[in-house]
Design a protein that fits this description.
This protein is mainly alpha-helical. Helix content is 55%, strand content 8%. The structure holds tryptophan.
Length: 326
């Protein structure tokens, strides 16, 4: 089975370790095998950032730098900017007629985001409808594999519903990464820049050290000799996501549960692994950051390529809707 892969990220700031574990790592594997489109979702970012337009604009370059830094290769993956493919907005507008407001209000991820952002009566209609725009992104490229974090699963379900309704020949399968959710360093929930509990991919050595120091462990584990809890312990969640030696991690968990293993030992181990993981990413990021014009040229070329593909789908869509007149 060959796949067409599409994913994206909203440009609202630099990407962090949660993005890396949730989807960037998967994309590196996928670009070796499949046709892959990776989108900087600026149009989607507008749905809750109309008051921060400058931040969205600035973050496009930041996200592109993060992509290049982790090893997404423009020769293998088409890196593009959502707004530069206006066909995506057009398709979203058509698909909006195939979903009810009640159905939009039931999407659990959107529900949670509405709660977090404190939207009440001032909920932007575009925000409530962003899963439809996401469905349009996926459908326009006829993507069959969408490597996103677990929180995006409801978007995939809505996409499949919409595509079924549109009676198109495309279908999508979610590829949810095994470690789809990386907790924030404070242990309060998933890693998120808006919660201030993120570790950015471009973090320097001191920031990495400080983040590991701050990491939530088990507040009941007061003395080294005390038994400790592994569940909900952020350091173990990160070791699960980053430590290649799974047998050693299993042993550390046992030891921690029995007592006699201090947080500092674990944190030193994790810090070494994170420093090693992030050093080459930071170095590549700095290299590309020195030539932003070249990065924007890459995005322009990718966007033109993506637009060609989406335009073909939209031509068929307009035909199917009876919107071809001349
Ligand atoms: N909603 C995704 C996020 O916040 C970004 C996104 C937009 C996306 N369109 C997409 C992801 C299409 C996958 C497929 O990260």
């Amino acid at each position: 089975m060959t796949h067409i892969v599409l994913t994206g990220d909203r440009p609202t700031g630099p990407l962090h370790l949660g993005h890396y574990v949730g989807s960037l790592r998967n994309r590196l594997l996928l670009q070796a095998q499949y046709r892959q489109f990776v989108m900087i979702a600026d149009t989607q970012a507008l749905t809750d950032n109309m008051g921060q337009l400058a931040r969205v604009h600035r973050s496009v370059l930041e996200v592109a730098l993060d992509y290049l830094a982790v090893g997404l290769d423009p020769a293998r993956s088409t890196l593009f900017i959502q707004s530069q493919v206006p066909e995506l907005a057009e398709l979203a507008f058509y698909l909006l007629n195939l979903v009810s407001v009640a159905r939009l209000e039931r999407n659990p991820t959107v529900k949670e985001e509405i709660r977090l952002r404190g939207f009440e009566r001032d909920l932007p209609a575009g925000f409530l409808a962003y899963p439809v725009s996401q469905a349009a992104d996926i459908a326009a490229f006829r993507a069959t594999l969408v490597p996103v974090g677990a929180d995006q699963q409801p978007m995939i379900e809505q996409t499949n519903e919409l595509v079924r309704r549109f009676n198109a020949a495309t279908g999508s399968a979610a590829l949810v990464s095994e470690h789809g959710r990386l907790p924030g360093i404070d242990g309060s929930g998933k890693m998120s820049k808006s919660q201030g509990n993120a570790l950015n991919l471009g973090a320097d050595a001191d920031e990495i050290r400080a983040a590991v120091q701050r990491m939530y462990t088990d507040p009941g584990h007061l003395r080294v000799a005390d038994p400790g809890r592994v569940e909900g312990n952020v350091v173990f969640a990160y070791l699960d996501a980053f430590d290649p030696d799974t047998a050693a991690v299993a042993e550390l968990k046992d030891h921690y549960r029995r007592g006699g293993l201090g947080d500092m030992v674990l944190k030193r181990r994790l810090e070494a692994i994170l420093q090693e993981t992030l050093a080459p990413i930071r170095a590549r990021r700095a290299e590309h950051a020195a030539d932003p014009a070249e990065v924007m040229r890459l995005l322009a070329a990718g966007s033109a390529q993506a637009r060609e593909t989406a335009a073909k789908t939209l031509d068929a869509v307009r035909g199917a809707l009876g919107l071809r007149y001349f």
